[in-house]
Amino acid sequence: MWDFITDLAGDVWDGISGFLSSIWNFTKWLVNRFIGIIEYIFTVLGIMLPKKFRIKVLILVDANLNPVAPIQDVEDAVALAKAVFKDEANVKLISAGSDRLSVGYSTVAPEYVQTVPCGVGAFLDIYTEAGRWFRRHSIQTPWGAFFGYGSPATIFVVKDVIDKDGCFLPFVTDYGYVDPCGLVG
Q1: Torsions phi, psi of 176, nearest 5?
Q2: Rounded Cα distance, 44 and 140, in Å
Q3: For 8-30, how does the pLDDT look when each residue is reduced to its tens digit (9 = 90+)?
Q4: What value does the CA radius of gyration of the chain take, rounded to a whole number of Å?
C-alpha cells in the first residue's frame, strides 16, 4: 500500500512540475518575443542582426556503457548546424557550458528516455518521469532560467525518436532530442 501511495505521489509531482515548467517556459518565450519586436522589424526590413544561440548536445549512454551514437557523427552534425545557422540566419551557435558543443553523457540513461515519442506523445511526456529526467539533465544558466534571455537549448541524442529523426517542443521546453538517423546529412 505504501508503495502505491509513493508511486502515486511521484506521478502527481511529475505532472505538476511538468505543468509549471511548461508555463514558465512559455511565459519566458512570450516576454522575449515582446522584447524582440525591434529585432523583428529590422528582420522584416532585411537587416539580419547577429545573434547567439547557446546549445549543448548530450549523447546518452546505453546499458552497455556505449554512446547511442558515434561522437564523430554528432560533431559533424553540429558543424553542419553551425554553418547553416550562420549562413541562413546570422546566428552563431555557441556552447552552453564547456568549450565543446557535444559531450558524451557519463552515466547510463534510463530506458524510458532512450526511446521517446514526438508530437502529442512528447508533449504528454513532459508530465511524466521522462520529462522530469530531461528537465533535470538540461543545461541551465541562472539568467536563462529566470528570464529566458540567452537560455540554452539542450539536445539529447537518444536511441530512437519514434517515427521521426528528432523532436523539439518550442515554447514549453528547453530541450529536444534527435536519434542517430537524424545526425546523418
Answers
A1: -150, 180
A2: 31
A3: 777 788 888 888 888 887 887 78
A4: 18
Spatial contact of 132 and 17, defined as CB atoms under 8 Å apart: yes
Instruction: For residue 54, report the phi and psi dihedrals to the nearest 5 degrees.
Output: -85, 130
Strands 115-116 and 166-168: unpaired
Of 102, 92, 105, give the one whose Cα is nearest residue 54: 92
Say which residues have a Cβ less than 8 Å from residue 161's Cβ, sequence separation at least 6: 116, 117, 118, 167, 177, 178, 179, 182
Q: What angle do CA 157, 163, 164 make, to 5 degrees?
A: 45
pLDDT tens-digit series, residues 31-88: 877 877 888 888 888 888 888 888 888 999 888 888 999 888 988 998 999 999 999 9
Round to whole Å and give the CA distance between 12 and 165.
Answer: 30
* Entry field: residues in the chain: 185
Contacts made by residues 169-173, CB under 8 angstroms, sequence distance 24+: 169/122, 169/123, 169/126, 170/29, 171/25, 171/26, 171/29, 172/21, 172/22, 172/25, 172/26, 172/123, 172/126, 173/21, 173/22, 173/25, 173/126, 173/131, 173/134, 173/135
